Amino acid sequence: MDNRYSPRIPIECTAVFTGDAVLGVGRVLDVSLPGCLMQSGEAEGVPPGEYIRLKLYLRDGQSAIDVPLAVVRWVKDDRLLGLEFIRLSEEDAIRLKYFVRPHGQVNAA
Prior knowledge:
Blueprint: E1 9-19, E2 23-32, E3 35-39, E4 51-57, E5 65-76, E6 80-87, H1 90-100
Antiparallel strand pairs: 1-2, 1-4, 2-3, 3-6, 4-5, 5-6
């Protein structure tokens, strides 16, 4: 059973991430208010528990959403990363909230 407190919204956008020992580019496959699922060729070098900085390039014509602190919750098949957003500016959190809302999230409070 998937005990999420916010539904995943399928999207496709580019992300750039950096960590202590990694710099990579990925493709975000879905996003929710607390995190995202990302596919990347550099995923195998990122262990669960690693803290990263992430920039999400949404297809909304605006600047990237900056996630200064995210944690890798899981890695699958050395190419998929489950990320949880830990720190996000209030402005970017609001922007992300309004981006996912029209894509099917109805209880974004």
